[in-house]
Amino acid sequence: MFRSLSLKRSFQTHLKTLIHCPQPPPPLPLPFSPIRTLSTASSSDSELRKYLGYTALLIFCGATTYYSFPFPDNAKHKKAQIFRYAPLPDDLHTVSNWSGTHEVQTRHFHQPENLQQLEQLVKESNDKRTKVRPVGSGLSPNGIGLARGGMVNLALMDKVVEVDKEKKRVRVQAGIRVQQLVDEIKEYGLTLQNFASIREQQIGGILQVGAHGTGSKLPPIDEQVIRMKLVTPAKGTIELSREEDPELFYLARCGLGGLGVVAEVTIQCVERQELVEHTSVSNMKDIKKNHKKMLSENKHVKYLYIPYTDTVVVVTCNPVSKWRGPPKFKPKYTKDEAMQHVRDLYKESLKKYRAREITSTSPDSNDPDINEFSFTELRDKLLALDPLNKDHVMKVNHAEAEFWRKSEGYRIGWSDEILGFDCGGQQWVSETCFPAGTLSKPSMKDLEYIEELKQLIEKEEIPAPAPIEQRWTACSQSPMSPASSSAEDDIFSWVGIIMYLPTMDARQRKEITEEFFHYRHLAQAQLWDKYAAYEHWAKIEVPKDKEELEALQARLKKRFPVEAYNKARRELDPNRILSNNMLEKLFPLSDNV
């Protein structure tokens, strides 16, 4: 599913002015006597004039309403509505992340076409002390790249600059998207070492937030970068590598966009290869028995847990054997048979909720046939019927377990095709990273974490949909990475919890948001400190409560080199033009600008 940053000129946005028109008072009670005297006639004429005055005032208010709102030329024919949203100026952009959970409005959204334009933009912005926050594809659930003061997006700087086939290295502009890069270098027989779930991220963005794929022997994606070009406000364009200023290089690889605008990166690639993906269904007892073997023997492995069931979907990916070739396997069920239980539940639930008038969903002749929906699309539709009803969510989860049981089998393809994952529709997600021992001696804390999390869900009766996704990586040398470690053998587990936003109804989305943050808070209180778990930078949310924020700041200082990071921010971006509200709150500086 394509995901991208949402950018539009807003003609309707937050309400600025409400026009309150006076309302007439309630009618006076009738007199006890029907006899009309001169006095009562005079009073009646007075009342008539009063009501005529109110009528004239209402008409005046209506006319004022109509002509006060400066509709665009193509909307002049529209009738004014009381309390209509007042349009924003033409130069004001609304920029939101893909899930629609965070948005800002700005007059300054820059898209330079080359390095010279980017350098000029950063220099001028620094001279004027105006914001120019780097923002990528807008895929981060927490909107980490958004800034009301102004943003720079490198979508037009998306070229492959150089390919070194012998050393398996590519130099690219940072605005290139992952899928575009992979498509352009496959003719050289090269690809990336690992991938996140989706392919629409810009390289600069996926690098700066410490994104990752899965595989206990494979580090997060920032470890693939061996050289980078950084455009900084104070020092101009600097080149960093392991050989040239290694301390700043490692710090800036996962720099959260706060140290400079990443303009170019050199990536260490690997040979393109075919993988065999094996999807199977297991349970917690068997997972515990085979977990160490799973981590050590598979190049890529992830577990998908389904709340309120004992089902664990295991997905492994390994290179096709040169000697044995791809496995010969005939699936027991067709795709339609795997989907049938989910389709039946949707029809049954739709009929039930329509009868109870709980949902406003109604048949539409333009709707595609139910058989045309993918599994994730149909899951969204099912959840939309009653997303916070625990019993309904449990039924959906059981249907998903049945779907995976009938989808067991093998799939063969190139790594860039196989390692993706359909994450579903718009969603809230929180993902934590914590140590899980070493490759030679896993601690099993990763499975203990999951068991406690599932028990918490059931105890608190959280309407938690599937899946709870668990992945692993090797460590990173980037000190700001959640998986940073100086011990080469260390491995880290990444666990993501989720709540979908399968509706555009504002009230329902608000209720789902509140329930998700309750879910996240319970997990945080019970698990994060116990397992030394820290949130993914693209998924961390800034608390609104002052005490909670201070606690988070103190917690981040225990795990990350915050002082070194802030020192680099002062040196490279003294006017904080690259910063935004999130960075300022997570890493406050005493000399706030």
Automatic annotation (TrEMBL):
Alphabetized InterPro entries for the sequence: ALO_C, FAD-bd_PCMH, FAD-bd_PCMH-like_sf, FAD-bd_PCMH_sub1, FAD-bd_PCMH_sub2, FAD_lactone_oxidase-like, GL_DH, Oxid_FAD_bind_N
Coiled coil (residue ranges): none
Cofactor(s) the protein needs: FAD
Domain FAD-binding PCMH-type: 101-272
CC per GO annotation: membrane
GO molecular function ontology, one term from the record: D-arabinono-1,4-lactone oxidase activity
Pathway listed: Cofactor biosynthesis; L-ascorbate biosynthesis
SUPFAM superfamilies attached to this UniProt entry: FAD-binding/transporter-associated domain-like (SSF56176)
GO biological process, one term: L-ascorbic acid biosynthetic process
Keywords carried by this UniProt record: Oxidoreductase
Pfam families named among the record's database cross-references: ALO (PF04030), FAD_binding_4 (PF01565)
NCBIfam families: GLDHase (TIGR01676)
Protein name listed in UniProt: L-galactono-1,4-lactone dehydrogenase, mitochondrial isoform X1
Species whose genome carries this gene: Herrania umbratica
